[in-house]
Amino acid sequence: MNRETLLEEVHAPAYAKPIELYAFIDPLCPTCWALQPMLRRLQVEYERYFTLRIALRTTLPKINGLCFNKKEDPKASEKSHPSFPSLAIKAAEFQGKRAGFRFLSKLYEYTFLKSRDVSSLSVLIEIAEKMELDVNEFVLDFSSHNVMRSLQVDLYLANEMEVCDAPTFVFFNENIEDEGLKVDGLYSYEIYEQILEELIGQRITPNIPPTLEELFCRFDSFATKEIAEIYRISEKAAERELKKQLLQQNVERLPFQEMTIWRKKVN
């Protein structure tokens, strides 16, 4: 899993942070959905130590020939395909890295909380609209060769790093000749903290978390438990603070069967 040649082919290896973290996920995998809160918490608490790259590791049927005919309007199409969620994430990333990550979060919400069919193009366009992306640009990118190539790069990375399943983390330190540390599956948050600390070679300290307003601007929506873990408080205390945001009309409350999701309110 030596990465010197790999990085030269994919992007220029110029990094200021001591650790590179590749998170390989499958947009239709329940375990990857469960990983998301820990990944966001790692970003909030320890992002100064690592550079994050989200890569897709999906088992896809044949994806050749999926681009739309130039005369066809994909926005009006009712097409559906198992590869569409992955292509949509890549299309969202073309409007910024953060847009891609937020699209993934919203896609998980639609899949596992709302039970919507995210392999349907019309549903994916609905997600883009909810996120206030440039929908016309999203549709054009979705059906472009550039998005297909971006997805193929992720699959190439997974192959070169010997990633067979999702979720998988691959950690690289500052020594470009060292092999990456591959961690398959889902573990407790403390395990990932310990790995970062061991790779850096010294004690790591979490950042002071941002305000709730800043947090919701960055990630859009959270479960109560996730807020409690980020601020290291009880769920009851977290709910009190979230209710204050609700009264101030900064967030809206979305109850589901097993949890409550708090989402930034769009005026």
From TrEMBL:
Q: Which Pfam families match?
A: Thioredoxin_5 (PF13743)
Reading the lineage from the top rank, the first entry is: Bacteria
Signal peptide positions (record):
none
Listed InterPro entries: Thioredoxin-like_sf (IPR036249)
In its UniProt entry, what is this protein called?
A: DsbA family protein
Q: What is the lineage of its organism?
A: Bacteria, Bacillati, Bacillota, Bacilli, Bacillales
